[in-house]
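Dear colleague,

Following up on yesterday's call, I've attached the two folding results inline so they're easy to grep. Please treat them as preliminary; we haven't cross-checked anything against experimental data yet. The first protein's sequence and structure tokens come first.
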Amino acid sequence: MNNDIRNALLDLFSVCLEVNGAGQYHAHMSYSAHINGVHVYVVPAATDYGDHSYTYTMEGRAYLDDELGGTPDEVVANLKALSDRVSEFLLPAQEEAA
């Protein structure tokens, strides 16, 4: 994994933390070593996790190797696209604060 991919992963994780900190949504991010990929999903903060019938407001995956994810540039672009999708959940909190 090159530094560009590593930095794109850190950016994605940071966006997830920001969304969680804003309080209206929970952004989840997990890494699966057996597929060398990340899974991200967002649900409303009021989600009842005990009720397993809840649905994701947003969901996405990105693979980090060349076999499934493409070239390093493609992997970075996919991670950036995921970060952009997750960051959209910051807008409602920013609008409410304004």
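Below is the second protein, in the same order (sequence, then structure):
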Amino acid sequence: MKIFNIILFVCIMGSAFAQESKYKAKKTKPTYEEVKGERNKYVKKVMKNTYGLYNKRNKLLGTDSDYMLRDTHRTAWKSINLNNKKLLDLYMKTYIAPWLKENKNKYKHHESIAVYIFGDMDGNIIELGLRCPKELKIPISAYEEFEQALLSGELKLFTDKENPIFKNSTWVVQTIRYRPETIRNME
């Protein structure tokens, strides 16, 4: 109940501040479009400067894993790791890098490509998401191959299941960010 009161207080204060502010941030709502791959349908969520891709049949949409509710300090991600980052780098080089090499855009320092990897508590990859700068046009066929490689490959997430923060959790997520130039220059 105490956490709820704190969250409510923060929301009320934030709302009051926003109403009194002379400079209101212009919010743009994301748009959603369905994109058909060869085997699956995907959702493309387009935001102001980025877009995200995920499988329309994502089993985790609308669910929270228990650790997310207990992780008030947002530190659990430090306990969630990949078994083989070089393998993920290889997937990025194989499926994403060719489109960055075609795209000659120069990206700002803060722009990144984020891979959201969801795994069950045994470490098996069960879902995937990708967020990219808006200018980077990755064909859905390349994303679909990337997704299939990750879901059927040897990549795993691991965590200490004995850690109390993960009690009753059914899945975990790790976000790996890449600078576009890093992927573009992968050899």
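For the second protein, one point worth flagging: Residues 1-23 have pLDDT under 50 and may be disordered.

Best wishes,
A.L.
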